[in-house]
UniProtKB/TrEMBL annotation, chain A:
Name of protein: Amino acid ABC transporter ATP-binding protein (PAAT family)
Protein topology in the membrane: Peripheral membrane protein
High-level lineage: Bacteria, Pseudomonadati, Pseudomonadota, Alphaproteobacteria, Rhodobacterales
Taxonomic superkingdom: Bacteria
Localization: Cell membrane
GO cellular component, one term: plasma membrane
Originating species: Silicimonas algicola
TrEMBL record, chain B:
PROSITE patterns, per database record: ABC_TM1
GO annotation, biological process: amino acid transport
GO CC aspect terms: ATP-binding cassette (ABC) transporter complex
Membrane topology: Multi-pass membrane protein
A UniProt-annotated Pfam family: BPD_transp_1
Protein name, per record: Amino acid ABC transporter membrane protein (PAAT family)
Compartments, record wording: Cell inner membrane; Cell membrane
Family: Belongs to the binding-protein-dependent transport system permease family. HisMQ subfamily.
Chain segments annotated as coiled-coil in the UniProt record: none
Automatic annotation (TrEMBL), chain C:
Name of the molecule in the record: Amino acid ABC transporter substrate-binding protein (PAAT family)
Signal peptide from the UniProt entry: 1-19
Organism name: Silicimonas algicola
Taxonomic placement: Bacteria, Pseudomonadati, Pseudomonadota, Alphaproteobacteria, Rhodobacterales
Matches recorded under SMART domains: PBPb
Family annotation (InterPro entries): Solute-binding_3/MltF_N (IPR001638)
Assigned keywords, A-Z: Signal
Chain ranges of the Solute-binding protein family 3/N-terminal domain: 33-264
Recorded superkingdom: Bacteria
A Pfam cross-reference name: SBP_bac_3
Length: 242, 244, 271
């Protein structure tokens, strides 16, 4: 059964309809990559899945329950679905450790002491043990993005959304962040990524969806989609980015 | 320019008379200790008003930032409040609140001009401080809010732990300037009775028919406000450097 | 008949102009005109209805009497308004004389000139009936114990400090209206004014005002004397002093005082 299922999702900003009826299914432990040109609706779709944007029409089913119903409290849902942003969005007035501890303490009501073992393990897992007391502006872009991932993981989400998390990084720092994703993939985390890293998508994705003008024009296993795209627009896009 | 003033002003025909009534050393020495003493009252009024203004300003700023449609009346109240109290001169508020409210028939000590004068200062300055806080809150990028909400934090925790700490820090220089203005406006409480430095200088002026006490009072104010202004400028410059 | 009237008018006018030449000639801002300043607004009973031109009120009447004695006709008197601060600043004045209950003090006299006094006022205690009901009387113990207020720019301030020495520091205000407002708000119990002002405020402004008592001149170190104010060194002062002396000698001043200022009876003397 699908963990996450989207049906007919529509979202407009003013007169600009960014998502025009998106259908998407994500199975347990699956890694789905969203590709497509800027403005094709990838980021908006992810923000809708995390309920950061209210949707205009359609349903978002998490384990079969519609989470996009108007009036529903978004907080419990957001605790189950983590998101990492392109621009890191760490809290600049807090150390890396405080960034990570904030939500588990305030939302789950857990103590710092109780959290420390697992949080320290997360920092260690992503090579950040010596960066816990640093403030974001003392960290490199790659380190900041890894801290942002640790921050999301500290809430033990069931599904993780990644919104072009390597796009703001210097090329030499992209690798260390992709390694984190590989690690999570190996761990069996259910993930949806918006990405421009075609090589990475081809290597690891279970499914690749090509978004064009607010709809999923074409989807399939990476081997299929990258080598034999059915649509002319997909072909054109791939020839530009590959 | 300054040198020209220093050199030329004493040559003006009116200078001896002006000097006698504005820069009289004898009067200065006689009145300065009394002025310093009266200035303690200014400092006290400032000291108890400032935290109240900070708190009230923050509350009003949060009211104005209320997003939920159900909280619209609160938001409207915040808007009306800041519009009204930024639009009325402080001295009018001090008169109206300082004499008006106790005039309703309050018993002592609840009719104290210190109490209602303070209320007037807080009402007025909280409106300005609220606007500064609001600017600060709005200056924090939406992505910070999104990041906090995406972690499951409530709106109020997001405001409390993520937005406000950054916003308050960012507007420290602007608030410093407001509190320097407050230090000067404390003197307006003298209009409803309290004998602080401005009033004490006025009493000396009437008694001695000499304006030198005003010069003394101005010097005392400057001794406090110039360092404070410098410090605010320093903070502002530091912040600009940090952001660029 | 018409001719007679014109001639009469002419002779009065020329007579006035001639008389003015005696002393005040060349000493006024505008030749042939006496420019008199008063407060803005000017209060009862010093000026009635804020209209000094009507000659109604003690200071208005005294001003016209002095002007007449110096040889100015009534329509040669021009009124302007000034504040206390304006008047004691050094520099040129836009008035010949300024009359608005200026207490004559040596310090003020260093900056500006004063005429001989045209009125000597005792200081009086103004309070409200509830305060009297609560036990305020003219004993010094009682007077010390209440909350005092005064107009900051008047000699009431040093008098309070020297004679009454209240337990709590007095509250001070910009003008009489504010003192009365504080009294109405219950922020002060009593205030010190010169007697005519106290009588007026007690009777007209306060619903329940009581003039509790007055201080005799001998209890006061410097009994308040009102003088007209001139720019420092104004030669007109000699002419005004002569006119005032003449008005005092012929009883005009006393008569004007009786006409415009209420009798002080009924206000006990504070021992």
């Amino acid at each position: 059964m699908a963990r996450l299922e989207v049906r007919g999702l529509r979202k407009s900003f003013g007169a600009n309809e960014v998502c025009r009826g998106i259908d998407l299914t994500v199975a347990e432990g699956e890694m789905v990559c969203l590709i497509g040109a800027s403005g094709s609706g990838k980021s908006t779709l992810l923000r809708c899945l995390n309920l950061l944007e209210p949707i205009d029409d359609g349903v978002i089913l998490l384990d079969g329950v519609d989470i996009a119903e108007p009036g529903l409290d978004p907080q419990p849902v957001r605790q189950r679905i983590g998101i990492v942003f392109q621009s890191f969005n760490l809290f600049p007035h807090m150390t890396a450790l405080e960034n990570v501890l904030l939500a588990p303490r305030r939302v789950r009501g857990r103590t710092r002491e109780a959290l420390m073992p697992e949080v320290e393990a997360l920092f260690a897992r992503f090579g950040l043990s010596d960066r816990m007391e640093h403030y974001p502006d003392q960290l490199s872009g790659g380190q900041q993005q890894r801290v942002a991932i640790v921050r999301a993981l500290a809430m033990t989400p069931e599904i993780m959304l990644f919104d072009e998390i390597t796009s703001a990084l210097d090329p030499e720092l992209v690798g260390e962040v992709l390694d984190v994703l590989r690690d999570l993939r190996a761990d069996g985390m259910t993930m949806v990524l918006a990405t421009h890293e075609m090589g990475f998508a081809r290597e690891l994705a279970d499914k690749v969806c090509f978004l064009d003008a607010g709809t999923i024009l074409e989807e399939g296993p990476p081997a299929e989609l990258f080598s034999q795209p059915r649509h002319e627009r997909t072909r054109a896009f791939l020839s530009r980015v590959l | 320019m300054l040198a020209a003033i220093v050199l030329l002003v004493p040559l003006a025909p009116g200078w001896p008379a002006v000097k006698k009534s504005f820069a009289n050393g004898e009067v200065f020495a006689k009145t300065f200790p009394g002025l310093l003493d009266a200035f303690l009252l200014d400092i006290a009024i400032f000291a108890w008003s400032a935290p109240l203004i900070f708190a009230a300003g923050l509350i009003v700023a949060l009211m104005r930032d209320a997003r939920a449609p159900a909280l619209y009346p609160l938001r409207l109240l915040g808007i009306v409040y800041t519009d009204v109290f930024r639009g009325v001169p402080v001295i009018l508020v001090i008169y109206l609140v300082g004499f008006g409210v106790p005039g309703l028939g309050m018993p002592r000590p609840w009719n104290s001009p210190y109490l209602w004068g303070t209320v007037a200062l807080v009402l007025t300055y909280a409106a300005y401080v609220a606007e500064v806080f609001r600017t600060g809150i709005e200056s924090i990028h939406q992505s910070q809010r999104a990041a906090a909400l995406s972690l499951g934090l409530s709106e109020s925790d997001t405001m409390r732990y993520v937005i406000l700490p950054q916003a308050i820090r960012r507007v420290v220089p602007a608030n410093m300037n407001l509190f320097i203005a407050l230090q000067k406006d404390v003197a307006l409480l003298s209009f409803i009775g309290p004998v602080e430095i401005f009033r004490q200088a006025g009493v000396y002026k009437s008694l001695l028919a000499n304006f030198t006490p005003y010069v003394g009072a101005a010097l005392i104010f400057l001794a406090v406000t110039i360092p404070a202004t410098r410090y605010a400028d320093h903070l502002m410059a530091k912040q600009l450097r940090a952001r660029s | 008949m018409r001719l007679t009237v014109s001639i009469l008018a002419l002779s009065v006018a020329s007579g006035a102009a001639f008389a003015q030449n005696d002393c005040a000639a060349g000493k006024t801002l505008t030749e042939g005109t006496l420019t008199v300043a008063t407060g803005n607004p000017a209060y009862f009973p010093w000026v009635i209805d804020d209209a000094p031109e009507s000659k109604q009120g003690f200071e208005a009447a005294v001003a016209y009497a002095v002007a007449n004695a110096m040889g100015f006709s009534d329509d040669q008197v021009t009124w302007v308004r000034s504040s206390f601060d304006q008047a004691i600043q050094p520099g040129a004045k836009d008035f010949d004389i300024n009359i608005q209950q200026y207490s004559i003090t040596p310090e003020r006299d260093e900056i500006v000139d004063f005429s001989a006094p045209y009125y000597s006022a005792a200081m009086a205690v103004l309070t409200r009936k509830p305060v009297v009901d609560a036990g305020l009387d003219t004993s010094f113990e009682a007077l010390k114990g209440v909350k005092w207020g005064a107009d900051a720019a008047t000699t009431a301030v040093p008098m309070l400090a020297e004679i009454i020495q209240p337990d709590e520091a007095p509250l001070l205000y910009n003008d009489n209206a504010d003192v009365v407002e504080a009294m109405k708000a219950g922020q002060i119990d009593a205030a010190l004014f010169d007697l005519p002002t106290a009588l007026y405020l007690g009777a007209v402004v306060l619903d329940d005002g009581v003039v509790l008592g007055q201080f005799p001149a001998e209890r006061t170190e410097k009994p308040d004397q009102f003088g007209m104010l001139f720019e420092e060194g104004n030669p007109l002062k000699a002419c005004v002093d002569a006119a005032l002396e003449q008005l005092r000698a012929d009883g005009t001043l006393a008569q004007l005082e009786a006409t415009w200022l209420s009798e002080t009876t009924g206000v006990p003397v504070i021992e």
